[in-house]
From TrEMBL:
Gene3D superfamilies: 3.40.50.360. PROSITE patterns: FLAVODOXIN_LIKE. It comes from Streptomyces chrestomyceticus JCM 4735. The lineage of its organism: Bacteria, Bacillati, Actinomycetota, Actinomycetes, Kitasatosporales. The gene is hemG. This is Flavodoxin. Residues 6-160 form the Flavodoxin-like domain. GO terms for biological process: heme biosynthetic process. Signal peptide: none annotated. GO terms for molecular function: FMN binding; menaquinone-dependent protoporphyrinogen oxidase activity.
Amino acid sequence: MTDKRVLVAYGTQNGGTAGIAEEIAATLEKDGVPAEARSAADVTDVTSYDAIVLGGGLYAGRWHRDARRFARRLKDPLLERPVWCFSSGPLDATATQKDVPPTRAVLRDMSRIEARGHTTFGGRLDPRPQGWLARSMAKRGMAHDWRDFEQIRAWAHSIATDLSKQ
């Protein structure tokens, strides 16, 4: 479909956001768009990519620190290419029932890099997560996977379509 190479970078604590990023990359690949998912903490250079998808798990209304740092650290090269953003985190069905806008903090991060769009996907809370707050939530019965992979693939298809028009 296109020869544009896409990086899907993510910040995650317990792996739920990584699963979303991997699904986005796999969907782009199936649509003929070369893509790879990588932890935002491991990326130091984006010049070999033509477009970026940046996502972060939401913690107290903010992206995971690796996603925030990625946006700050690589701001200048990100401004030179199309960027789409996603958040994962509602631990309920909200994200599949309606459009959940980005939080104020995520909007700030997106505006710095002039992101073209954003979506929010349901999150996942592992039964044995890292972090005291997540463990407390899991003990209260909130451990569940709220990610909707059909919704994730549909969003990735829309990015592939946008890239094919450029």
